[in-house]
Specification:
heterotrimer; A mainly alpha; B mainly alpha; C alpha/beta; B: mainly alpha; 15 helices; 3% strand; globular; C: alpha/beta; seven-stranded mixed beta sheet; five-stranded parallel beta sheet
Chain lengths: 297, 355, 413
């Protein structure tokens, strides 16, 4: 009995911490959508790109903090460039077009590593050690603890940013109604760029942490698929939703894998969050914390 | 001096509603038919025919997705799962009940249509990206069910070998025979789609895409039509899956995963949403791109790299070029290859004048 | 604009003329083989190391004059671990007159088996593919030429038995596997052995893409607490499994991985040899660079003024590429000799493959013996363990439970 409880507890804690890792990626997605209405299907590839930059830098014996800083810088520049070159011309196009553009971008990013630096898998070792923190039955590897800390820090920073700071409020105005914001004297283009840059920073840290957990190669981009149940459940444009959604998805996955899998031969963990997501959508079609779109005829 | 419409006067309703009312259009279609039915199979060798066969199968699937995404405006990322459903239905019927292909094919399509309608139920409440992700969920769930139900998947290997289709007592085996087999279904699918979108149902779909709330107000039962759209689109997907199965000789769910769904989305977007010709062009383009790329790069690359490095470079370049082309199309011509064709056609319509 | 276009077409035309001229010359003393590879898909970790090994062996043989005077030309096509490109690749190989092809991937092998029979071109699937294809009578043109998943599973059980003191009665074994047909292949044999050897077997499936298995590993280490773990993962998942098991405190010396989770690349991706200390890996080809053939390849590179390729560092997969190429060429050699020196057809090569025996390439290839009935060659494997910062050989080549495997083969066919 106690064994079972311990098992459940460790499953839940493991799920919570992995869930916050998902939120880290989801934050990048939400930031972009919240500010610019663009849907980034290539979020996973962004994380992969950041991971490659950091891994190559570390491989060249650059000190850790500098490598992370380089990754952040590269991602910010990349996001600026992306916004200008690809997304600006696509403003106002149907949603499918933007999705497809980011899918195309994802394909480009996945092809780049093999011809530039070589596609073999790289380890991204951060100097935080491998021995897990042990709390009774709970094992937490240090990298996950780092990820939790980083995610919660971002949650705090972005929540404050959008609620209290001038720039954050301006960004929300731009997201709400571009034309009115422009009429009010807000430089919409600058805020678009800023939003993408913020997403770039988040992606960079996500890339470093996930790359450290999984190793860096083009398959790292697959973590991007996890973004969707998280943001749909949480609401596409809600920072809090990204975190809560991540937590829920992480725990549901963990419990499904631990309890349902043995009975059905495995694999439930993949779609359990999606099932939950569909059920939730039937009651709250814009996600738990998403803004309800008022449709006009 | 290709004035198309001048001098053509229709004197009956049938002539007005015909699929190709203009004589020049009829002549062009006849020419295309001769080209595809006679010239192509006789002039191409087996390898190139096999590529054309892959394109034909893709056309059927892409047409279905276009009905759902292009004409009804519902984004679906789960198309490959319905192909999988059709494939396994037909495979099981063929292997266990020994049904011939002209029974298993519609059976596979109908089963896929049924599942598609079920998957479409959330579309009443959910829209846009949220719906797209719900369809992604269906892709994963269907894949899991097939993988884990030995009764459907045929055992741990999850692949079922099917006998070749038989027509008039002879097996359809070679690429040439398969070509005619697949051409028949591709033409059938194209005709069906062309007529569907001109009909009442098609107009209802377009109304839902453009302004679904307004459509509901004027009396179109949007729930019914959305479900119908999902069902019809999934029927096409099921048929496409069955065709793949008969072409490869084996039904395997690993051939119908999320990457394939995205490939089909790419086909209809590059081709042009909401246009049949666009879908055909897009399907051809996306299917042939990796092959053409490889054929083009091999001789040139062979001058610079050895075989091993070349393969790695070709593989990465294929991805990069694929992505660049998609973005290029979307930025330069968001309405796809279809718009490009229309521009050319309009130019020649009034040539040598400019307007 | 016009200038650029015509310059470009002229260059391409010139290139084409040059190439076709040289191609026509080379064709009659040339044998074509096809190789499918995954360089961009989920198992690129393997493909990017394995296929260079194949190419290097072929280059080595060509540099020494080819096989009985024939040069070998390899056509490699990336199938991205998908089935339609694999089918298209096969059509291309057929068109170019390939006498055999190296397939890549279990679903691809299953999809192609019928076509290979129809087109009479043999395909090899070393270390993967359908285990039932070991039966040469039922699958005349499919050749596993290395331990199938059944043989690997049985060998893992035999290794566990040895490690646990010679008896498995009452012990617990966990089977951690990738949730797809390839991962599920060994199940039948494992369950059979669990009954006959008396151990409790519990299976833990990891769904694609296999990069998270925290809950499964928790279940193993926290609840089931087995005496041994047999892992059958590939792509990115082996490295994740090493990290997870280690992170939850399970001794890696009680883990044995089947052939696709057992390379230097997996260990590196898991964080290095220190992390993976004690991890047992199963191999069907020799490991490391202490072989004459590798020295010859390095010499070949040096003679060209280049350094040996970095893929050699991932010797587990690189050597598998070498071994595959070597067995392919041995089959072709047998076919040429049987035909008295003439260029063989694909059917001749099939008979040549069925005559492969006593071929060891300096210990890198296990004592394979391929016959018309046994396309697997005996199912030989070897275990290498991570000790003190590198992979160390842990025993000689062995076969396991051949009677059980034969029984399963007979039952399924």
């Amino acid at each position: 009995m106690w064994d079972e409880l311990q098992f459940s507890l460790s499953l839940i804690v493991s799920g919570l911490s992995i869930g916050l890792m998902y939120s880290l990626i989801a934050l990048g997605f939400v930031l972009v959508y919240k500010a610019t209405d663009a849907i980034n299907f290539a979020q996973g590839e962004f994380v992969m790109l950041a991971g490659f930059v950091a891994a190559v830098a570390l491989g060249d014996k650059v000190p850790v903090l500098a490598a992370v800083a380089i990754a952040v810088a590269v991602m910010v520049v990349f996001s600026f460039a992306l916004e200008r070159v690809v997304l600006r011309p696509l403003l106002g196009r149907p949603i499918v077009a933007v999705i497809m553009a980011t899918i195309g971008l994802g394909a480009i990013l996945r092809g780049l590593p093999a011809i530039t630096v070589g596609g073999q898998t790289r380890a991204l070792s951060l100097p935080i050690g491998d021995t897990p923190f042990v709390f009774g039955p709970i094992f937490l590897p240090p990298i996950q603890v780092l990820g939790v800390v980083v995610t919660l820090a971002f949650l705090g920073i972005f929540s404050w940013f959008f609620l209290k700071s001038r720039m954050g409020i301006a960004m929300r105005a731009v997201a709400d109604n571009q034309q009115v914001a422009m009429a009010m004297g807000i430089n919409v283009e600058r805020y678009f760029a800023l939003a993408w840059a913020m997403a770039g920073i988040v992606s960079a840290l996500g890339g470093v942490i996930w790359g450290s957990m999984l190793g860096v190669d083009t398959q790292l981009a697959l973590v991007g698929l996890k973004v969707f149940p998280v943001v749909i459940l949480g609401g596409l444009d809600s920072i809090v939703g990204a975190v809560v959604g991540g937590l829920i998805v992480g725990v549901v996955e963990s419990l499904a894998a631990g309890y349902l899998d043995p009975y059905v031969g495995g694999g439930t963990k993949d779609f359990a969050p999606y099932v939950l997501m569909i059920v939730a959508l039937m009651f709250k079609p814009y996600g738990l914390f998403g803004t309800h779109r008022i449709e006009r005829v | 001096m290709l004035h198309r419409e001048s001098g053509v006067f229709k004197t009956s309703y049938a002539a007005d509603m015909a699929l190709y009312p203009l004589p020049i259009a009829r002549k062009a279609v006849a020419l295309i038919i001769v080209l595809f039915a006679v010239v192509l199979p006789l002039s191409l060798d087996e390898y190139y025919l096999s590529v054309v066969n892959l394109v034909l199968i893709a056309i059927v699937g892409a047409l279905g997705l276009n009905i759902l995404v292009g004409y009804t405006g519902q984004i679906s990322v789960g198309h490959a799962a319905f192909m999988s459903v059709g494939a396994y239905t037909a495979a099981n019927l063929a292997v266990h009940l020994h049904l011939p292909f002209w029974l298993t094919l519609p059976a596979g399509g109908l089963m896929a249509a049924l599942i598609g309608a079920i998957v479409g139920i959330p579309s009443l409440r959910i829209k846009g990206l949220y719906l797209a992700i719900a369809t992604l969920a269906s892709q994963l769930i269907i894949e899991w069910i097939i993988n884990h139900t030995p009764a459907i998947s045929g055992g741990a290997q999850a692949s079922i070998q099917v006998p070749r289709p038989e027509f008039m007592g002879r097996e359809i085996k070679t690429q040439g025979q398969l070509y005619f087999f697949l051409l028949f279904f591709a033409v059938l699918a194209t005709l069906a789609t062309l007529n569907l979108v001109r009909s009442r149902i098609g107009r209802a779909f377009v109304a839902i895409r453009d302004q679904d709330i307004a459509a509901e107000i004027i009396g179109i039962n949007i729930f019914r039509y959305k479900l119908l759209s999902f069902a019809i689109s999934s029927f096409y997907a099921g048929v496409c899956g069955v065709l793949y199965t008969y072409y490869f000789g084996i039904a395997n769910y690993e051939a119908f995963q999320i990457g394939v769904s995205i490939d089909f989305l790419a086909m209809i977007i590059i081709g042009g949403l909401g246009s049949v010709l666009g879908t055909i062009l897009g399907a051809t383009f996306v299917t042939m791109l990796p092959i053409v790329l490889r054929l083009a790069m091999e001789p040139l690359g062979g001058l610079f790299f050895n075989a091993g490095q070349l393969s790695s470079i070709i593989a990465s370049t294929r991805l990069i070029l694929f992505g660049c082309l998609i973005i290029l199309f979307l930025v330069v011509e968001p309405e796809g290859l279809n718009r490009l064709w229309r521009n050319i056609r309009n130019y020649f319509r009034v040539w040598p004048f400019s307007y | 604009m016009l200038k650029l276009k015509s310059w470009r077409t002229a260059a391409m035309a010139a290139g084409a003329v040059v190439l076709s001229a040289s191609a026509a010359q080379a064709q009659d003393k040339e044998i074509v083989v096809g190789l499918q590879c995954d360089r961009t898909g989920p198992t690129q970790l393997v493909g990017t190391a394995l296929c260079p090994g194949y190419h290097d062996y072929i280059d080595l043989v060509n540099s020494k004059g080819g096989i009985e005077g024939f040069k070998i030309r390899v056509i490699e096509i990336d199938n991205e671990y998908k089935v339609p490109p694999a089918m298209e690749a096969h059509e291309r190989f057929k068109k170019e007159g390939a006498v055999l092809e190296g397939i890549y991937g279990t679903p691809q092998t299953a999809a192609l088996s019928k076509k290979l029979d129809e087109d009479k071109i043999l395909g090899t699937s070393p270390g993967f593919g359908t285990a039932a294809a070991a039966d040469g009578k039922r699958y005349p043109y499919v050749f596993p030429i290395a331990a199938s998943y059944w043989s690997q599973g049985a060998a893992a059980v035999q290794f566990a038995k040895k490690e646990l003191g010679g008896s498995l009665k009452g012990k617990k074994i966990a089977y951690l596997f990738y949730d797809n047909p390839a991962g599920k292949e060994p199940l039948a044999v494992l369950e059979d052995l669990s009954r006959s050897e008396g151990f409790e077997l519990r299976t833990f499936a990891v769904p694609a893409p296999g990069v998270e298995m925290a809950a499964q590993v928790l279940d193993i280490t926290g609840r089931f607490r087995p005496d041994f773990v047999i892992a059958h993962l590939f792509g990115r998942s082996p490295s994740v499994s090493i990290k997870e098991l280690k992170g939850k405190g399970y001794p890696l010396s009680k883990v044995i991985s089947l052939v696709w989770g057992s390379s230097e690349a997996d260990i590196q991706a898991a964080g290095g040899y220190e992390v993976a200390e004690g991890y047992h890996t199963m191999q069907f080809a020799g490991v490391g660079s202490d072989f004459q053939v590798i020295k010859d390849i390095d010499a070949m590179y040096k003679a060209q003024g280049k350094s040996p390729p970095k893929e050699q560092a991932i010797s587990v997969y690189y050597n598998r590429g070498l071994v595959t190429a070597a067995v392919h060429l041995e089959a072709i050699r047998n076919a040429i000799k049987a035909k008295g020196g003439a260029k063989p057809t694909s059917e001749d090569v099939k008979k040549g493959m069925e005559a492969v025996k006593d071929f060891t390439l300096g210990g890198m290839v296990p004592p394979l013996q391929v016959t018309p009935e046994d396309h697997e060659g005996g199912g030989w494997v070897q275990v290498w363990t991570v000790k003190g910062g590198k992979l160390v050989k842990d025993g000689e080549w062995f076969q396991a439970y051949r009677d059980v495997i034969m029984k399963h083969l007979a039952a399924i066919n």
